[in-house]
Amino acid sequence: MRRPFGSVRAKATLAATVVVAIALVAAGTAVLLSLRSNLNGQAGTQAERSAREVAADLSGGASYARLRLDDDQRPVQVVDEKGVLVAASEDLRRISGTGTGAVRPRAPLTPTAGGGGTTADDHGGGDDRGGDRGGDGRGGDDGGKGGRGRGGEDDDHASLEPGQIGAEVSFSEGSATLDGDTADYRFAAVEVSVTSKGALTVYAGAPLAAEQAAVRTALTVMLTGLPLLLAVVAAVTWRVTRRALRPVEGIRSEMAAITASEDLARRVPVPDTEDEVAGLARTTNETLAALEASVERQRRFVADASHELRSPIASLRTQLEVGAAHPELLDVTGAVEDTVRLQRLAADLLLLARLDAGERPSDTRFDLAALVREEVSRRPGVTMEGESAEVAGSRGQLARVLGNLLDNARRHARDRVGVTLRTEGPWTVLEVADDGAGVPAAERERIFERFVRLDEARGRDDGGAGLGLAIARDVALRHGGTLTAGEARGGGALFTLRLPGHT
Known about the structure:
Elements lengths: L7 H52 L16 E5 L4 E4 L3 E5 L13 E2 L6 E2 L6 H5 L9 H6 L8 H5 L6 E14 L2 E14 L3 E10 L1 H53 L14 H50 L6 H25 L8 E3 H10 L4 E5 L3 E3 L2 H18 L4 E8 L2 E8 L33 H11 L3 E6 L5 E8 L3
Parallel strand pairs: 10-12
Antiparallel strand pairs: 1-2, 1-8, 3-6, 4-5, 6-7, 7-8, 9-11, 12-13, 13-15, 14-15
């Protein structure tokens, strides 16, 4: 049963959507922070401009009563060096985030000319304007310890000459109620030194309503657009992956049909592209072709084996039946020969089955020259020359290879068979040559196929079942070597066995 949410298509869609969502959230956060920072910077610039305008009026000798504090409808405070509010916007009712929370200024007392008494400042707003103790005139505890504080500012005030405006500006954020409207503001604090008034600090605010509105609008747009954009990304990814994986589905369905029908002659469709899916389809077809060839070879092997086994068994049965009916006519010698041939054929088939099953030879090291001398001594008319050479593998299987090559050479030789053993670099080379008719060039690969006998070797008395050379090559390959057929110097057949040497 197919599970759409566990498919590659669903996983690709989910991954793409998550990645885009993370990227959009990160980008949106960066945009909002940048927008907020820029708008805050603009508000700070406006607040600084207003504060410096008031500071310029103070440095020019303007009295508190003549300061332009309500021209821009922005909250403004003027605080002396002791934290006392000496001037403020007329419509200011509440404020936070500055050096004092007071909104009703009172005139500070300054020394008289005689030095013994005190008098009010020149704007005459003394007690009646500072009597509102809710603001306290000093801002209570908040006034002396607010955004600007007093502690570390004495040195800064002392560094300013009379009539000089400080170059430094500090910013803070807070809120204020002005003319009945409460809003958030960004405040700028600028210092100024005034003759007869001492060091003063001017606080001026610029509204943050535009910044907040812009941020809210951008956030609303992002929160609205993000789901829509993610939906579009998911839909597009779903369709694109469907189109990209359609050839894969075709390959899968065709492979399922091949499995159900067991028809290895069928092939999966190859898309008209040069991508990985097309490569997968081509590789799958190559695998199917190799599997078809392997199965066909197995079928042919079983059919040929059955045919080869049928002949000696039928001959042996006939001889035994004749012997049972007429004992005097029993051909014991022929029966033994058929039994031996049947035994050899069964052994060959068993060895081929083990080789096809992937049986690996042992890593035993032995002298190949000693093995060659042993096999040559059993066959009259065979000569040997060569040096000692150590190889690793199955001694029994390599003895079988050598025996098959020698028997094949003796069947086709006129007078002599020669064996040569030598070393060529990392290889041990064994050559078996005869002076027979040789093997035609067109047949030199075909003779290594199973149950293949050339026309002149079709007679069962002269040739075997056609398995000897096939077994010899398979064993050579399993030992990491090669076995090839060629032409000897005298015109006969030359079989060359190459095996990895060991020193």
